[in-house]
Structures are given as C-alpha cells and as structure tokens.
Amino acid sequence: MDNPEIARIFDEVADVLEIQGANTFRIRAYRNAVRTVESLTTPLRKWVEENRPLTDLPGIGKEMANHVREMVETGTLGFRDELLAEVPRSLIELMRLPNLGPKKAKKIYDELKIGSVDELEAAAKAGLIAAVPGFGAKSQEKILAGIAEYRQHGSRFLLPQAERAVEPLLGYLRESPGLERLEVAGSYRRRKETVGDIDLLAIASQPVPVMERFRGYPQVDKVLNAGDTKSTVVLGSGLQVDLRVVPADCYGAALVYFTGSKEHNVKLRRRAVEKGLRISEYGVFREQPDGEGEWIAGREEADVYATVGLAWIPPELREDRGEIEAAAAGRLPDLIRVQDLRGDLHMHSTWSDGRNSIEEMVTACAARGYEYMVISDHSKSLSMTGGLDAYRLRLQWHEIDQVRSRHPEIRVLRAMEVDILGDGSLDLEDEMLAGLDLVLVSLHSRLDLPGEQQTARVLKALEHPEVNVFCHPTARLINRRKPVDMDLDLVLRRAAELGVAVELNSSPNRLDLKDTHLKLARELGCKVVIDTDAHRTAELDLMRYGVEQARRAGLTAGDVLNTLPFETFWKAIQR
Ligand code: DGT
Ligand code: CA
Ligand code: CA
Ligand code: ZN
Fold first, then answer.
1. What is the tens place of the pLDDT at every residue in 382-404?
2. Atom 23 of ligand 1: nearest residue by CA position
3. Which of 17, 61, 372, 444 would bridge 411 by S-S if both were Cys, CB 3.0 to 4.6 A apart?
4. Where in the chain do CATH 3.30.460.10 domains reside?
5. Short-list 566, 500, 515, CA closest to 545
6. Average pLDDT over residues 191-209
7. Helix/strand/coil for 450
C-alpha cells in the first residue's frame, strides 16, 4: 500500500470519527497522521520493511504506527472496516459529497434527519438547506452542484472492483441446476471503465431454482426485486446486480438488448424499422399488416445483426460512434488483443516507488512473453516516490547493464518518467536525457493550472527534442480527479507533428487517454502506445484494461506502436 492510500484511509477514519462525534483529540490525531503521511518523502512501506521506528515521525504515535504496519502488511485497516460498519452507509455517502464533508453532513443529518443523497437533493430543492443555521442560499447551491458531480461519477464502480464481485458470483451461479448459459451484459460487457450496475442474462430449463440460488448468494445484502424470471439484489459492496432468465429462442436478442448501449440499440432498431422489421429483447419480428409480428430470429446475437444486414459487432464498440455504419460497409476494425503487444513501455522498480527490483520486473516481463520492456522510474522532483537525480540514475544504469547481461531473452530499455515542471521544463539535465533510450514525460503537480497555462506548459515539454512519450496525458483519476484543463486537441496535433507518442495508461484508475481521446489521437495521426505503469510485477497484468479501452476506441494492432517487433518499433518511436 502506498502513502496516498494510507493517507486516504486515515482521512476516512477521521471523517467517520467526526460523524460519530468522537473525542476531538482523537480525530486530530488522525488528521495529523494524514498530514505527516502526505508530506513524507519516503514510502512508509520502506519504513516498515526496514524496521525503522515509525514513531520517530511527527504525529505518529503507537496506535498510528500499528495502523501503518497493518496497512502495509495486509493492504487494509481492520479498524476502518469496523467503523464503516457502524455508521449508516448513507451518511458516509453524504459526507463524501463534494462541497459537504463530515461536519456539514452531520449537521444536516441532525437538523433534518436526512440520511441519503436523494433526500438531501429534495431538501435543497425545497430550500430547506438554506434555512439550516450555518448554511445559506449559496451553500445550498454548492451542495446541489456537488450532488450533480457525484451522480456523474461517484457512485460508479471501477471495472476491477466490479470484477472482484462478479467473478465469484458467476462461479456460484454456474452451479445452479438446469443452468444452460450465463453471461454478463450491460456496460460490464462493453468494458466501460466504470459500471453502474451488473446485468446478468441466463438460460435455464427451470428459472425458479436459479432465481432462488441467486437471491441466496452469501454476499447479497438486500433483495430489491424477487421474481420468477428476474431478480435484483445489492451486494455487500453496494453493487447492484440484475439477473434475468430468458427462453433460449430469444437469448441473442436479449443479449443485444441488455448489452446496450441504449444509443446503439436505438440506432439498431431504427435500421430494423427501415427494413420493415422490429427488434426487441424478445427477438426480431417481421411486421405484418394485422399488427402481429412474425418471429424471424433471436437465438444468437449474430442472427439478430444479420437480419438488418450487419456483421456481429464486438460489445466494446456498441456506443453508436460509427460502428453500425462500419458494420454495414463491412469495415469493422480488427480490434487489438492483449497478445498483440510485444512490450510494456512504462514501469517502476524499487529505485523509485515500485515494489519489485529491476531484475524481478525483467523476469516477470520475460515470463509474459515480451520481446522488449522499459524501466521508467520517477525523476527527483517527485521526492515522495524516491525519484532519481542524475547521480542515482547513473547507478541505475549500471544495474540495468548487469541485469541485461543476465537476461538476453528480453531487451531492456532504460528510460525515465521525467516530471514536467511547472514551467514546462523537464526534471532532468539534458545530457542525462540524451543518455536514455526513451524519455517519458508526465504531469504530476500543478494540475489545477488554468487551461491556457497548462496547454503552454505541456507544449513546451513536448518541444524538448529528447521526449518520446507523453504519459497519462490528462492526469485524470477515475472517480477521484478530473482531467486537467488543457486543449487536448492542440496538444495531440502538436504531438503528431513532433512525432511524440501518447500513452494509454492501463491502470484502471487512469485509463488515460480514454476511448474518445484515443479515437481523436488516431484521427490526428498521433502515435499511440499502451503500457501498464506497473509498480509491482502483478500489475503488469493490467495491460488488458488498456487493451479493452483501446478496443472501445476501435484501435487495431496496427494503431499501437508496441505491437511492433523491436526493430520496427525502435524506428517508429523515434521522432
Ligand atoms: P450502467 O449500468 O450505468 O453502467 O450502464 P448500462 O449500459 O449497463 O445500462 P443499464 O444497466 O441501465 O441497462 C443495461 C442495458 O439495457 C443498456 O445498456 C441498454 C438496455 N436498456 C436499459 N434501459 C433501456 C431503455 O430504456 N431503452 C433501451 N433501448 N435500452 C435500454
Ligand atoms: Ca448495467
Ligand atoms: Ca441494469
Ligand atoms: Zn509511472
């Protein structure tokens, strides 16, 4: 667990304690710990590993030290989990609203007995919030704006979170007697970066026992709807899951319908109407003069698409962004696959904030069958990550040379993820930049600059002749941080002219560039790479999330530089 995560958990504990009206000293102790952790320049993990006394740190007493050790060693904090079980979930939801926070949430809760976001919204719209002492019309407005923002992002699950809940559930359901087919539809199947809820579809000889088994799943927190062919539950994680059992004859039609997107379905149905057909979740019907439709297809998805003259469309493309037109013209892209990638171009080692040594990363990349790989630790201005200055970078090169000689099976490139400083200059001396095989650049600070300044800063960095890749260009963190204000169109155009590649960072928290941006990048002739930004060997497997995002953008292997064999790749990545 890294420092920001530890800080976030301490912050959460403080929030809940504050809601509970706990002793102010206790709350302050956690807030102080947050501040200490946030300003620390070495990973706490290192402190624990090296058995350095954590209590030497300001604001870290015995209790906090134990907490830190627990988080580093187990990846979670039992005390936090206990607290979260005590406080009404809805109140935590309230306190997490932008522009609210624990104090105001508690006040509103105490005064108006409001315990959910919906109730809060209704109260704000009715003017009740403005009347609460300490609040006014202005804060009421801010709360409504916060709710709108939260609705857009906050309540959606990241794909890996959803997967952690869905995978075991699928395994459990597959044990149902009489189950013949089971698939996840909805945004999950389209591999959207976040999902609102999970839509399951099944065929079963007898639906009722499948429904009963579903509702009896041990992780089910609440059953919202219990029917013979459709049920809805909420899992302990808060994730809502629908299960529908449909007849085999309309499984394909139902799968198309519930995979969506809505926009894709609308376009598809319109196309059907033009051909005198009607597509619904029950099948494809030929319209008859008497109003009754004649069923003509529905068993498989491909059958449904075929009735309207289309090839089967991969779910990732079903967003009505030209995929129906492409399918009609027989020009659907041959989407990139994980096995097309021949190298990972962005990863960290213990030289900065990674968990594994260079050699461990090299062995792990070789085990994944890569032909080449890139070690790219942080530069010095990111002191909290242990970023490297010129001196330590030279030492690292020495180690890379040694590892290279032991691992001829894979080509190891030396790079650095160089920080773009506030003024657009780079956080490493020119002569050192020249000594790197590849130069990656990223924004990690001053992410709130006004658009014009941010754009100018980035453009200046990309002009530097040594730069090869612009990493996680918008710096967004999904559900947590907005993309920077920047003229991305302009930046991508310039990157294309300069021959600088843009990254699709596969970390499921980032997925940056995202699908629509990638599409734009390709249209503008920008080079694209997909990599993991792994901070430990296991994270090398995150590549599939990047590939899924690329597929959503309609990218083929030919659109991505690191699908190329090394010699060709090496020429293509040069400016
Ligand atoms: P989500 O859950 O917000 O991440 O997004 P989806 O796409 O999974 O949406 P969801 O769960 O509301 O519905 C699943 C699919 O069912 C959706 O992609 C398309 C279909 N669907 C739902 N409601 C409608 C509707 O009102 N009209 C049409 N044509 N399709 C719908
Ligand atoms: Ca859904
Ligand atoms: Ca749904
Ligand atoms: Zn990185």
1. 988 899 999 999 999 999 999 99
2. 262
3. 372
4. 157-245
5. 515
6. 96
7. coil
The segment(s) of the chain belonging to CATH 3.30.210.10 are 250-328
Tallying the residues shown for the chain, one arrives at: 575
Report phi then psi at 398, rounded to 5: -60, -45
**Substitution site in 193, 199, 246, 320 for ligand 1 pocket (most atoms within 8 Å of beta carbon):** 199
Cβ 458 vs Cβ 424: under 8 Å: yes
Burial class (CB in 10 A: 0-12, 13-18, 19+), 309: exposed
Angle between helices 159-173 and 207-215 (to 10 degrees): 130
What's the rounded Cα separation, in Å, for the pair 520 and 526? 9
Query: Taken in order 503, 507, 511, 512, is the CA torsion positive or negative?
Result: negative
Residue 294's nearest CA partner among 275, 281, 277 is: 277
Q: Which atom of ligand 1 is nearest to the CA of 242?
A: 11
The CATH homologous superfamily of the domain defined by 250-328: DNA polymerase, thumb domain (3.30.210.10)
Q: What tokens does 416 get?
A: 């650095």
pLDDT average, residue stretch 325-339 = 97
Of the candidate CATH numbers 3.40.50.300, 3.10.290.10, 3.20.20.140, 3.40.630.30, the domain formed by 338-573 belongs to 3.20.20.140
Q: What is the DSSP letter of 182?
A: E
Question: CB atoms < 10 A from the CB of 450, how many?
Answer: 9
How many other C-beta atoms are found inside a 10 Å radius of the C-beta of residue 134?
10
Beta-strand relationship, 157-158 and 194-195: antiparallel
Q: Could you say which architecture CATH assigns to the domain 3-153?
A: Orthogonal Bundle (1.10)
Question: Which amino acid, residue 354?
Answer: G
Return residue ranges of the chain for CATH 1.10.150.110: 3-153
Where do you find CATH 3.20.20.140 in the chain? 338-573
Q: Is the pLDDT of residue 336 over 80?
A: yes
Buried b (16+ CB within 10 A) or exposed e, 388-416: beeeebeebeebbeebbeebeebbbbbbb
Q: How confident is the model at residue 81 (pLDDT cuts 50, 70, 90)?
A: confident
Tokens of 298: 């529905």
Q: What is the pLDDT of residue 153?
A: 63
| Cβ 197 under 6 angstroms from ligand 1 | yes
From residue 542, alpha-carbon distances to 162, 196, 338, 510 in Å are 15, 21, 10, 11
Q: Which atom of ligand 1 is nearest to the CA of 192?
A: 4
Report the nearest atom of ligand 1 relative to the CA of 257.
20
Indicate if ligand 1 lies below 6 Å from the C-beta of 199. yes
Closest ligand by atom to 232 CA: 3
Whole-angstrom Cα distance, residue 361 to residue 400?
11
pTM of the prediction?
A: 0.79
Q: What CATH superfamily is the domain 157-245?
A: Beta Polymerase, domain 2 (3.30.460.10)
